[in-house]
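Readers of this paper often ask what the protein records in our data store actually look like. An entry from our holdings is shown next, in its original layout:
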Amino acid sequence: MKRKSYSTDLSAAEWHRLAHLVPGPKPGGRPCKYARREILNAILYVVRAGCPWRLLPHDLPPWSIVYHYFRQWARTGWWRQLHHHLRPCVRRQEGRRPQASAAILDSQTVKTTEHAGVRGYDGGKKMTGRKRHLLVDTLGLVMLLVVHPANLQDRDGAKLVLAALASMYRRLRLIWADGAYAGTLQEWVAALRRRAAVRLEIVKRSDEAIGFVLLPKRWIVERTFGWLNRCRRLSKDYETLLPHREAMIYIALSHLMLRRLHNKGTF
């Protein structure tokens, strides 16, 4: 009997785009009882609905099998690969070149729960948890992502994110960031490459401004954080392992891009 669909389910067109990318079964094993498409549907349900693995609806594959595939694909880096495969597709659809020349950097502190795992106290936000450090392009699509304890200063956390620029995104020339990244980080970023250097430009709020002020380019990364907050599993950091937290973010962003590629808006 065919189950009723959830709003998070992959459409036929979305699955057609992903089918050849999903890792197949290992040779020599027993036949798969559950289709890869249903496994992905269950993972997307968890990320969007925010439920624990054990509370997956009974018309989806068993939670233990779904979690097994989530953990296995997180360990191999497949979620990150899927995200990086979809991002150039969205940029082309928007009439942009596959690689960006400008980006925006920022972090977001998120509370953790009582689960074990690394965490820290963010004195600025007065919150114990972890930071999501993102580098996004001018469309708000994530280029680089690192999750680290919240007690790590933004300038130090930025180095974890931006170190990859030494060998990646050779077209990137300009990064916008807020005042928390001012200082020696600008020189450190400029020294990442001998050729095609990247410039870190600080966008500061005016001292005369009162109340909320929309800063040029800075709002783009805030919108990306807003997209993530639509997924209840990302409203707090429920994961014990940092790679699992990063995988959850890549899943949410990949789902968002799939919807945009097939003209379904956002979530």
Q: What stands out?
A: The two ends are 27 Å apart (CA to CA). Residues 23 and 78 are 8 Å apart (CA to CA).
